[in-house]
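Researcher: We plan to redesign the surface later, but first we want a full-length starting point. Tokens attached.
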């Protein structure tokens, strides 16, 4: 089976080449995304590995099926860019990636600390030789209640990281993770919203989690709450974030992802007209920290993502067990 990899970054190439040699692969690497005009040029019966920068809905999946392409791997944990229900309906198998949760968990704690210590303002001032302290006073983590929504692998790792700070930790999830009950107190979603000084999201983007942070849920939070999102941008309604930063109901935002970032993230847009008004407006606030959707981005995670991308295709095509298969 020929394998095409799309949206390949330079940091992934050495891992693809190692897998090419290991499995004697017929492998083609492409830095661009797999757009509809490129699908007709793919070899019949091939497999494809993608990232999450483009959407794969009915039109794209039907075109792939016509080329007898029945296996897709996404080198990401999130898979909301693929219509997996339709893929399953037409017989296309999809798998995602996995990697150790430590990188995102560490990044999350960093985001919390940056927000608590007003780092963005401090950095701005230092860059112009302003070393004054007015307005920069921070808070100690030990004095706070931190709520973690979603206690899977990453959420659990965040909780374990935070346990060393001496803060109160609340957790909310449909399922209790027995590995973290010694560190966190499970409460209802509403109780977490009402009692947390800091709230961090660690869940997939699904129909039931879309805009889980909105005007209604923010209104139930403490005045000056700090919100952290190193998961998926559309978990938070960007308009609600803007209005509540303006009203100071939200005290600070630590965002590694923002809704509607899909055609912007991981690209150099310095010389272009930046048309995403909501993103541009939100990120300019002194208490909003926004990074390049890079919480995952470690040497270990990149290697694991590429390995899952290739091995998942090979396992699915061979009819073997694929631990990350979605459909």
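Model: Full-length starting sequence:
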């Amino acid at each position: 089976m020929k394998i095409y990899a799309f949206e390949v970054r330079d940091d992934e190439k050495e891992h693809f080449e190692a897998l090419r040699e290991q499995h004697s692969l017929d492998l083609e690497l492409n830095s661009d995304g797999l757009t509809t005009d490129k699908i007709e040029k793919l070899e019949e019966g091939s497999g494809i590995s993608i990232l999450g920068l483009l959407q794969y809905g009915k039109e794209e999946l039907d075109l792939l099926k016509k080329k007898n392409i029945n296996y897709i791997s996404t080198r990401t944990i999130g898979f909301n860019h693929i219509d997996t229900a339709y893929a399953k309906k037409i017989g296309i198998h999809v798998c995602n990636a996995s990697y150790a949760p430590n990188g995102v968990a560490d990044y999350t704690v960093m985001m919390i600390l940056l927000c608590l210590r007003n780092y963005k303002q401090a950095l701005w001032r230092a860059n112009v030789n302003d070393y004054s302290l007015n307005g920069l006073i921070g808070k100690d983590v030990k004095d706070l209640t931190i709520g973690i929504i979603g206690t899977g692998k990453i959420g659990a790792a965040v909780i374990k990281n935070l346990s060393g700070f001496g803060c109160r930790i609340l957790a909310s999830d449909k399922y209790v993770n027995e590995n973290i009950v010694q560190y966190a107190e499970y409460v209802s979603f509403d109780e977490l919203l009402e009692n947390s000084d800091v709230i961090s999201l660690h869940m997939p983007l699904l129909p039931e989690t879309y805009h889980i942070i909105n005007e209604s849920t923010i209104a139930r939070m403490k005045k000056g709450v700090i919100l952290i999102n190193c998961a998926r941008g559309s978990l938070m309604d960007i308009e609600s974030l803007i209005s509540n930063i303006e009203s100071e109901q939200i005290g600070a935002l630590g965002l590694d992802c923002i809704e509607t970032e899909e055609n912007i993230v991981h690209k150099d847009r310095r010389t272009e007209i930046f048309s995403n008004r909501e993103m541009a407006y939100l990120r300019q606030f002194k208490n909003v920290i926004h990074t390049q959707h890079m919480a995952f981005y470690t040497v270990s995670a990149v290697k694991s993502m590429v390995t899952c991308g290739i091995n998942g295709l090979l396992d699915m095509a061979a009819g073997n067990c694929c631990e990350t298969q979605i459909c």
